[in-house]
TrEMBL record:
Gene Ontology biological process terms in this record: methionine biosynthetic process
Domain Cobalamin-independent methionine synthase MetE C-terminal/archaeal: 6-64, 174-388
InterPro entries from the UniProt entry: Met_Synth_C/arc, UROD/MetE-like_sf
Protein name: 2-hydroxypropyl-CoM lyase
Recorded GO MF terms: 2-hydroxypropyl-CoM lyase activity; 5-methyltetrahydropteroyltriglutamate-homocysteine S-methyltransferase activity; zinc ion binding
EC number(s) stated in the UniProt entry for this protein: 4.4.1.23
Pfam families cross-referenced by the UniProt entry: Meth_synt_2
Stored SUPFAM superfamilies: UROD/MetE-like
Native species: Actinomyces slackii
Keyword line: Lyase
Length: 401
């Protein structure tokens, strides 16, 4: 008889009102670091206990250390870096236009996020506040930028998050090895404007060196680090003109090389790599097919590969795994419930989705998950119901298999 299908999620979980208020007070200067740490620790205890109660096999801190002050927030996974690295600031569009570093000749130049081809193709829907999709209302008034030497300054913050999660795991009766903390990939971090380094590739390598310190802190504590890397798939849509596939792959290979350099010496069993096409709610008409980059994703020094597999744009891609050989020591973490719909998946559907992957690569090499983070994207009541459907579906699939 096969072992039960394990379950997890991608990382971000709904923030509590107490945590939102604490982050806002800390940002305003009315709550000190110790006060914020106390709230983060207490809320991490509660969120780990709830995950364990639902029956999730591999849990995390809900990304509660990545500050959010609003219930809806698509960018906390990315902007948390501004609390942990030197050399960053926000600048005006005028400053950006005047001082951005050049891209080397013959290399792809990553355009600003406001130029997504999907946003252009469906501009009428994106600009309509009644459309029900995440809106792209033109350029932001300020732009996050690298304007100085990058260095990791988040030692105390990551130590706080690690201590909160390890303590919560102990209280929930789960070993440290079943806990993970998310950290941004060098390529995702480097999508902000580069106004300091010689060129974009130099900025990617600088990010890799700086981020290595966070990766090491998490894994040396016995936890797994999840590399949040939507850049591999999502960056395709950020070029004003669709690039040649071979150029895009070359662009991505450099960035994976930098990530593997940052992960050097870290046991791949303690690393999972998350690929997605962006968490915003919209048509995603210009998403790149997973088949074009799956080999690149598998080249990362990570045992686990997490990816979107439940949404309407990518669910059909499970068939890739009928023809793609999964390297020894690696396992899949497919999304089987989604973040882009408020519809609650039926456990039988969840089981069907799990079975497809289990039959393709073996049930012992599948960990059922969510497409992307649920926190900040769907209402908390719906998010937790989706996680319950996930564990229920995994139980059904385990019996069938």
């Amino acid at each position: 008889m096969s072992a039960a299908i394990r379950t997890t999620h991608v990382g971000s979980l709904p923030r509590t009102q107490a945590l939102l208020e604490a982050n806002a007070a800390h940002h305003a200067g009315t709550l000190d670091d110790a006060g914020l740490a106390a709230v983060v620790t207490a809320e991490t205890d509660a969120v780990v206990a709830r995950q364990a109660e639902i029956g999730l096999s591999i849990v995390n801190d809900g990304e509660y250390g990545h500050a959010m002050t609003e219930k809806v927030d698509y960018g906390a996974w990315w902007f948390y870096s501004f609390q942990r690295f030197s050399g960053l600031e926000v600048i005006s569009p005028e400053q950006a236009a005047a001082s951005r570093r050049p891209t080397p000749a013959g290399k792809l130049e990553l355009d600003a996020m406001t130029d997504r081809r999907d946003w252009v193709a469906f501009a009428e829907a994106y600009w309509d506040p009644t459309s029900g999709i995440h809106l792209a209302n033109g350029p932001a008034p300020v732009i996050p930028a690298v304007t100085g030497e990058l260095a990791y300054t988040g030692q105390e913050i990551v130590a706080r998050d690690i201590a909160a999660l390890t303590s919560a795991l102990d209280k929930a009766g789960k070993p440290v090895s079943e806990g993970f903390i998310a950290s941004i990939s060098p390529a995702s971090a480097a999508r902000i404007g580069n106004y300091h380094y010689e060129d974009d590739e130099a900025a990617v390598w600088a990010w890799a060196e700086a981020l290595r310190e966070e990766y090491l802190a998490i894994t040396q504590a016995g936890l797994t680090v999840q590399i949040d890397a939507p850049d591999l798939a999502e960056s395709w849509d950020q070029f004003r003109i669709e690039p040649a596939l071979e150029d895009y792959r070359a662009f991505s290979e450099v960035r994976i090389e930098a990530l593997n350099h940052a992960l050097r010496g870290i046991d791949p069993a303690q690393v999972r790599y998350h690929v997605c096409w962006g968490s915003w709610h919209g048509p995603h008409s210009t998403d790149l097919g997973f088949a074009h980059i799956v080999d690149l994703a598998l080249s990362v020094n990570a045992a686990g590969l997490t990816f979107e597999a439940a949404n309407a744009r990518h669910e059909h891609e499970w068939r890739i795994w009928q023809d793609t050989e999964l390297p020894e020591g690696k396992y899949l973490i497919p999304g089987v419930v989604g973040h882009a719909t408020n519809v609650l998946e039926h456990p039988e559907l969840v089981a069907d989705r799990i079975e497809r992957f289990a039959r393709a690569v073996g049930p012992e090499r599948v960990v059922a998950s969510t497409d992307c983070g649920l926190g900040g994207r769907v209402h908390s009541q719906i998010a937790w119901a989706k996680l319950e459907a996930l564990t229920q579906g995994a139980a059904i699939a385990s019996e069938r298999l």
